[in-house]
Fold this protein.
Amino acid sequence: MAKKAHAAPGRPGQAAVKTGRRARVIMAASTAAVALTVVTATANGAVAQGGTPGSDALKRIGTAPRVPAGATVTGATASGTTLHLSVNLAPRDPQSLADFVTAVSTPGNAQYHHYLAKGHFASVFGPTRATIAGVSRALRAAGLTPGEVSPDGLSIPVTATAAQASHAFATGFRNVRLKDGTTDYLNTSAPSLPADVAASVTGVVGLSSVNTVAGHHTAARRASRTGSATVSGRSSRTVTANAYSPALCADFTGSGLADGTDYYSPGKLAGTYGMTSSATVGAGQTVAVFELENVDAGSIAAYQSCVGTSTSVSTVYVDTTSGAGAPATDGSVGVESALDIDDLIGLVPGASIIDYQGPDATSATDQNVLDVYQRMVTDDQAQVISTSWGECEAVESSATANAENTIFAEAATQGQSVVAASGDDGSSDCYRATGSTAKAVDDPASQPYVTGVGGTTMTGSGSSATQTTWNNDTGGTGGGISTRWAPVVYQGGVATTGKRAVPDVSALADPHTGYPIYLQDNSQSSSPLPAIIGGTSGAAPTWAAAIVQANAGTACQANGQVGFLNNALYKAARSGYPTNFWDVTSGNNSTYATGFTSAAGYDEVTGLGSPKEAGLTTGLCAAKGTAATGTSTFHPLSSPKRLLDTRNGTGWGLSSIPTTKPLVAGGTAPVKVEGVGGIPSSGVTGVVLNLTVTGTTGAGSVTAWADGTAKPSTSNLNWTGASQTVAASATVKVAGDGVVDLSTNSTTHLIADVQGYYTSGTTGSKYTALAPARLLDTRSKVGISTSTKISNAVVSLKVRGHGGVPTGATSVVLNLTATQTVGGGYLEAYPEGATRPTASNVNWSATGTTIPNLVVVPIASDGNVSIYVHGTSHVIADVSGYFSTSGSTFDTVTPLRLLDTRKTAALGSGKTLALQISGADGIPAGVKAVVLTVTVTGTTGSGYLTAFADGGSRPTASNLNWVQGKTISNQVIAPVGSDGKVDFYTNSTTSVIADVAGYIG
């Protein structure tokens, strides 16, 4: 059973409300809001439901805790109770911080592995001095005395009485007696601050002492086949030094227990996971462990003696001092720390270990927890941070979670990897906290910038080893879906869930086949006792050791330390899953209630699985790479190639295990471009995709951008409702890792077909813009001898020699429009005489649809292209340009919104709007054409839009066509006037949006 530790009201030396206890099953601290009643201090010295805020212009921050289930309110908190608080500040630009973490974690990005130096976070991403000063002034104005801001600028410490805090934050305090008899206090309202500074504050931590952390380890058992279930009965002995032996000493080898069956020695565990065993492995690396208890130095020395190591283990005390707290002599205190440290000593004995020790878990507050994590990060001494402590995500306050999130993001900017145990209560992480068997996950394992580590049961070694989900009478691996954190980009296509999924990976956790340690129990022996223990507390440092070994290896020494792990982990899974991971496919984590089931590939039980260190290191320590840049030429594909189809798993899921789940709202699909579908493996600057959504669940949009770069505030494809099939082409910049990202804000299946690509060389075709001209209109016998709708037939369209397309053109750019459709259907454009492709260009799903799409089609030797109509529709084809050996080159830009008339006024019927292109988004003067995604929305009737060079004659061709009420997007390669402008004309009032992707010329 995991040791549960409860939070107490502050740092050592403060006035405490809690009464005598060491550990208990904890109660819930719900984040549900209570009534926002302003409260005042009472005359008898207690802080009740009152308090006068210092300003009328106040804003509540976060939510207040609810009285835990089974608890009783016992009255107001004494007004003199001392509170140790932190006012936590937001980074100056949270999005820039997130973008930087992505950049330094993405091979091919110019910032890849260019981490911030120690102490630079505050000046680059921390709140500005003005922000810090403004918040500090507000606190002083409210009667508080703020301390010195933290080194990273993220928190301002405040020590105050309950009465002072009540007045300053407009909240009351009350005591609650929990069902185990202990007493806590909590605030009755979310804290308030003046509105002008509240936006800079993510939360105030320390207003409630109802919270918990837990060490995720099982009970220890004696290292003897005839011993009892727990450690007992051993005489004292003298610790002596031994030669390095990853198989351990006679305390274990002579115990009657079998290595690889009853426990795993460091050598056996390392060998099974493909890790190296030597006395110096990990040399030059430092790993830090988070602890909330004392550790028995004699027990650590006994383990070092047994395994024959001399690993450096030091301690940094945070909010506590050496000798404070309960001694690690009762067989309980210090066991978590011993497991973490001994596991690391055995697997990376050459590394240095720093034990960051906070106050005892029985008295530690959320503020103490944050202080320890913050110190581990701001010290920036360790490349890897391992924590085996956590709490149910639903119990943790939003203020604490938000503060942690920023701290872990800070770690990522510095190249620190953070791993955390996912918990030992299966899918019901809150069970021992609240009694709830509902699905819940553990924090910090669920944090987006943390690698959550689940647990397995393992027997055997080498090729004969077997591994299943850990779930038995000793506990079960934690895992599930966060209720707090949105889907993360790195899990796109792997964990297709509506929120962050946990765990990310897993390793040995079952105590029946667990970890050998030493612990001190004075009631049993005066010397440390050998024992076997388990829990995800063992799995987390095992993964920490795997990262340490990778960092110490040749590849990481050349390319930089791993840093934020999850980006690299999931990339490695997509590219070579069987080589890099040991998939765990049997078992479940239904420990207290129906949970999740292991399956092939990722699951919310064991994540991606356990490490295969040799292969995984290659992925984690990838070469830096270089993104192709500069002017580019075009290479059309003879036939479109499908890169992604979430309906059947094409390009979706792991390298060997596809998934057929749709892309969820807020989710991201990373699509590998380079080296796929006939595209070169390097040198690609951009790709022309035909994007199609189908099976839509509501209105939404798709955004495409280069992987590892900031997600733009643009869109490439838009739709207006459920059960639609809509397509739009997009020209997308390709990142140095050869990947583009596709994100949606509404759950849908998504298809991506590549029509061609750009490279930085001169071997491809160049573009010539034309004044748009109509080559085909079946409504009026243009380009065809009939005016009837086309049904399930092919239209042959003469291109060369028409509309300005010369005989030397190799590919043509057409705007295809289906209109007056009957039922559902699609259009396909391809070179005449070629095999009809399986990829479509224009899709519709209902009668009466009008929908356009831009296509790039190679021209057949006879100068024709074919357009196949599946279903029944009129067809329009307008030419806007062509590719040939002459013409102009292409340059990609970072997607940027150049126009949004929703912010000004809709473009009126019969009106023309001129949009400045040159000078925007780095586009130089003199360009000949611009690549835009143009969207109409808020349409007031049926209509069309035409884009053309400013100063030129408006053509009769159109770029977008629509019916009333629709939102339609289309890619447009528009000629640019000599004044650097493009004109938009519409014959029906509508709002117009224009996003730029690149330029010609």
